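User: Can you fold this complex?
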Amino acid sequence: MASGGNDAKFFTRGKIQEFKAELQDAAKGKDKKFVKRKTVLKKIVANITMGNDMSQMFPEVIQCLPIPMLEIKKMVYLFLVSYGRVRPDLIERALPHFIADCEDRNPLIRALAIRTMSYIPLPSVLSALVEPLRHSLKDSDPYVRKTAAICVAKIYLVDHRIVERERFIDNLKELLKDANPTVVANSVAALTEIADRSDTIVLKFPYSLALKLVAALENCSEWGQIYILDSLLNYVPQTSDEATVMTERIVARLQHSNSAVVLTVIKVLLYLMNYIESKQSNDYLCKKMGPPLEVDIDFVRKAVRSIGRLAIKISSAADPCIKVLLELVDSKVSYVLQEAVVVIKDILRRYPDQYDSVIPILCENMNSLDEPEAKAAIIWIIGQNAQKIENADELMDTLTYTFLEEAVEVQLALLTATVKLFIQKPQEGQKLLPKVLKWATEEVDNPDLRDRGYMYWRLLSNDAAAAKDIVMGDRPPVNTDTDRMELGALDQLLLHTGTLGSIYHKTPETFIRYAKGKALKDSPALNATSRRALISLPTGGPPKPVSTAALVPPIPQSIRDMQSEARSPPPSATGSTMAQAQQAAPLGAEDDLLSPSEAEYTGGPSRKGTVDSDISQDKPALPPKSNDPYAGLDSAFGGYVADQPKPVGGRPGEFDDLLL
Amino acid sequence: MISGFFIFNQKGEVLITRLYRTDIKRSISEVFRIHVVSSNDVRSPIVTLGSTSFLHVRHNNIYVLAITKNNANAALIFEFLYRFISISRSYFGKLDEEAVKNNFVLIYELIDEILDFGYPQTSEIDTLKAYITTEAARSEVTDIGESSKLTTQMTGAVSWRRGDIKYKKNEAFVDVVENINLLMSAKGTILRADVDGQILMRAYLSGMPECKFGLNDKLVLDKAERAADNAVRLDDCQFHQCVQLGAFSSDRTISFIPPDGEFELMKYRSTSDVHLPLRVHPTVTEVGTSQVQYSITVKTGFNPKLSATNIVLRIPTPLNATIAQCKTVSGKAKYSPAENVIIWKIPRIQGGSEATLTAAVDLTATTTRQPWARPPIDVDFQVLMLTASGLLVRFLKVYAKEGYHSVKWVRYLTKASGTYQIRVRSFIVASDIN
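Assistant: Here's the predicted assembly.
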């Protein structure tokens, strides 16, 4: 095991003048094995890291380029990548060295030179790179070719005209047939990125190319496999058989230990399934993709929630779902049980009177519940169904025993359930009711609980009949619209499996600036089910946010929405409304902070000119903490991480520019 | 893809910055510091602000961060971040603030190589070590032949292995490690029993040997019509990058050219016919409201040549327990009031034998009306040379040039830690006193 270096001492703020002097002295005097200059360069790199502006060192650092030592060369190159853009006047001096390196006999040096040059987005550097790059794309060494392929994408993003003028895209296409799998993978990655950024280039892979790419998979690095698999979305199967063959070629990758490979395979399989006719084949693939039985608590919880959602959304699935949930309850694994109780509550509400037989089973497990959400759920069930539960008063009596120690969520549920019990069974509820009302209104500090307590109190004392109508009135049906997706939206989202978009349940064009959407493409092989859901992407113009109906809020959110009692005041501590409100508010304020130059800067190929003007590396983009523009966001931020990840910022680019 | 790679310390100071794309600036590190490092309630490893996403992993006292402005493959980024951590650990022994500061130049070299334009490239430790080396062992790669060999290896089909590895004695060690998970009802029925297995290999083999690995995999043996009683059904297998997945999916052979040294060859799961190494028979009697009596017997389910070691039973007691008197001839038992458990440690139980504990726990009077929830008994243990799934290595063949001798060793280990649980029910008898 390597013991590692001893460079921490260089992590101190240094003076430019001292560094300059040290480098000059070392160059003049004896510098055995270049040790002195190496040391100064390390100090400079450390200072760059710490955010100290070292750009004034440019002339002295460049003078170190001729030193024949790879370690020094790499540090100088790192310096040039960091400050090259700042000193276009001085970069010229480095060019001859770069060019010489591009012709070095050592392939590692050749690749290093073109890789570094392509990180410096200056016209002079890029035009000097054109010829060496043309050679590198045909270099005899695969390492140089694979580096050159990525260089093309780098240049394209800075100035696509160079790539078009030099016809480098043709070179990349040529490299797709390269014998070396890594070269193929990087060329595919470069082409994919270019097509993503371009308005004119659309990748269409014919079947023969797709087969070739798949053949390269077995010999690729895990990352290369991902790039190749990803690119298969550019292939549109023309027959069901084609699509089936493709799935057979890639399905083995599901056993890869890299989760990103697995997720990308899943994405491609899901895509190909649209073009497969046979239900049997698709069923087989679904089974293959089924996740293994995880012993992961979060995963199991999500699975239980999904079963509940299924039951709520599809009434014909409710019976089997309830059956499975009862089996889970029977497992008595604590977190599974708690989660199951929460979802069964929603099912009971969605299908009143249908699953009354379940209630006693849940009540039996009442004492095992300790999470507030699960407790609140069982309390709701008991309150709502007090009529049907023989010993409802005893159960409520036990549950209220610890009223004062419970979480607010549970206290609110207890209060409402006690009122419901009293209304349905006045005899049995009359002893408990005054006790709970008194606690809620006199002994608890929470205003929501107190207000709700008073509301019930007055309601019951003024007009008991009205109270019954209100408390036990018709419940609005459980609304599943919040997570309803437009036909086809799910298909689109699945094309982004494994990406940030799939985590947020949003297609990228709705939350990422300049992102392109993906849509299923028509072909004779598209099966009937998928054809019904076929939607094409909006064409032309900047991406518009899709109507909110198409946006999918994360799952637990919507389930939570269903839980808030329609007639009761929304509990402010738990409701999702709060997080949403906070999210919207601070964003407007931030718009004011955009300075014009920052607002213009995009870094995208279409606005190339601004790249050069944006040179203020060391100028902090944000004011110091005292008037931190994000201060107001903190709470909203906290709200969202406590729940489910979702991108902050409603529309693409709304406060994007601040982050440049 | 990745626009920038950063390492922060706990204070939010930048230890490493590398920008791969012009769509972000160095100062973006401030945003991460404010929103994640200084924020108390960030639990999500992904934060998206506008179009910019921050994906981070905390490791020791540092944050390893990747920033992207695209709809990047999140799984890829996290796999990459964890890979960076394992590469660093292999280089520096550990990855923390001190190690980063002491090796920052090397880290810059590494991340220039393993990420190009934000696309992960070579991440095979062995290959990287061949030409990115620590100060102590630095040698310049100037030899052209050497360089070409390297570049071929980095981009080739066997990027994880150098071709010129030599050992005097060719040895391969295979460790099959199984974690058993059990949930048993109070009546003794198995509610859940499964095994998470891992096959670890340490290969010290010269040249480019091709290995073939054979298990008593039910699918293979059934196909060969070799009716084997002891075949195992593997529900889910995952393989190291070196295993040819195509070959496995067509005929379930596991063939590979191994990396040099230690690696995880495969992971698997088995849920059928899991063999329970230990059985626990608890009898719990609640005497009135003042005492609980325990009689707990542990029986082994393997042959007398083997033994279970480091057995720890955690036996829950009621919350209002005051003192516990434990009696056993096997190991030691003591009551831990802080955790409300009796901890019974037995250093070793030979196969075919059993151990018994009796205990009496006194309770104080309580005002709590909720009955005792009776959490399950939890057992930790390990058994050498046993697999709970029944998995066996049938062969490991090493194919190389003629006259190539290799010695192969196999070990098995089954262990349980925290997930081997037995439910209890108690018999309630009236108290003798009054």
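The helical segments of chain B are 28-37, 74-92, 97-102, 104-114, 125-131, 144-155, 218-223, 245-251. Chain B has three domains: 4-123, 171-274+388-411, 278-384.
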